[in-house]
Design brief:
This protein has 307 residues and is of the alpha/beta class. The chain is 25% helix and 29% strand. The strands form 2 sheets. Strands 1, 2, 3, 4, 5, 6, 7 and 8 form an 8-stranded mixed sheet that branches. A 4-stranded antiparallel sheet has the order 9-12-11-10, with helices on one face.
């Protein structure tokens, strides 16, 4: 047992993308991965979504590892190990939901065992199958490759009012996986039906308060955060990580914000197209450099400005 000073080390990505059907989980996962590693050929998708991953073959020469029922945790672990032995640097699990609720997944196996082997005793059955789920989580966390898992979200339709008109909108609710699965990942991005992402968990501090569409730039930014040596300094806290991830802070970064999140129109004779300050923050890096971070809004745009 030894105590040492904390420091940022080069590490591997553990990221989850959640969202309802049609929100763009697979496509977003591929774009992010392409920015994270040097070549498409270093990316493999463990595909339990009926070959949907191959619909995007035009993007690049990534590989696909088809996974068919039964979707047991053991088969997911076997697929992860095969991808590692094959030398892939980026493993996309699309989707992790099948290991929980799919044919032969944990819920299916536990239910059958409870009805037969354990004579209706569900708690006894969980004592057998919880370690199987934990073994899959451990395989993800201990992998030598970057791991990105897509997770389906339960879908619900709600009625909203926009511009005086009532509309029906599809929204994603809780992810279809064991409760608390998000705690196992460093970053969790939630996709809405319009493909806009927000971070429900973000240890990097990069995506805090942002609404954006996942792209190759997202992966490139994460690559710099994961590899502090590449930018010449260690980030000592979340704010430093946010600065370091961009190397040289951009003048302005603009992302789209859902209409309901837009700033209200002014009633104080301020032009509608004026920038409004939401927050201001002084950030100091480990090397003593100081930056001012401003969060501004203009209409439906959210803008982050660095001094």
């Amino acid at each position: 047992m030894e105590i040492h000073q904390a420091q940022r080390m080069n590490t591997k990505l553990r990221l989850a993308i959640t969202g309802p059907s049609g929100s763009g989980k697979t496509y977003s996962a591929l774009l992010l991965s392409a920015g994270l590693v040097d070549s498409w050929s270093k990316i493999v998708i463990i595909d339990s979504e009926n070959s949907s991953a191959e619909l995007y073959a035009h993007l690049g020469n990534y590989s696909v590892l088809p996974l068919t029922p039964p979707y047991s945790p053991d088969r997911y672990i076997e697929a992860i190990r095969l991808a590692e032995r094959s030398g892939f640097e980026m493993i996309i699990i699309d989707s992790l939901s099948h290991a929980w609720s799919g044919d032969g997944g944990i819920l299916d196996q536990q239910g059958k065992a409870a009805d037969t082997k354990y004579k209706g005793n569900s708690w006894s059955a969980w004592r057998e199958f919880t370690p199987k789920h934990n073994a899959l989580v451990e395989a993800i966390l201990q992998s030598k490759a970057h791991v990105l898992a897509t997770i389906r979200s339960k879908t619900e339709y709600i009625q909203v009012e926009e511009n005086g008109k009532r509309q029906i909108r599809k929204v994603g609710l809780a992810p279809i996986q064991r409760d608390g699965i998000e705690y196992e990942f460093a970053i969790v991005l939630d996709l809405a039906a319009d493909h806009v992402a927000t971070a429900s968990k973000d240890r990097s501090g990069i995506f805090d308060g942002q609404y954006f569409k996942v792209s190759r730039d997202t992966g490139q930014t994460l690559r710099q955060w994961l590899n502090p040596d590449a930018i010449g300094e260690h980030a000592n806290n979340a704010n430093d990580a946010s600065v370091a991830a961009t190397s040289t802070p951009p003048v302005a970064v603009t992302v789209n914000v859902p209409r309901q999140a837009a700033a209200p129109k002014s009633t104080n004779n301020i032009p509608d197209n004026a920038y409004r300050v939401c927050s201001a923050e002084m950030i100091k890096t480990a090397q003593g450099r100081e930056f001012v971070k401003l969060a501004l809004t203009q209409g439906e745009n959210n803008i982050i400005v660095w001094s």
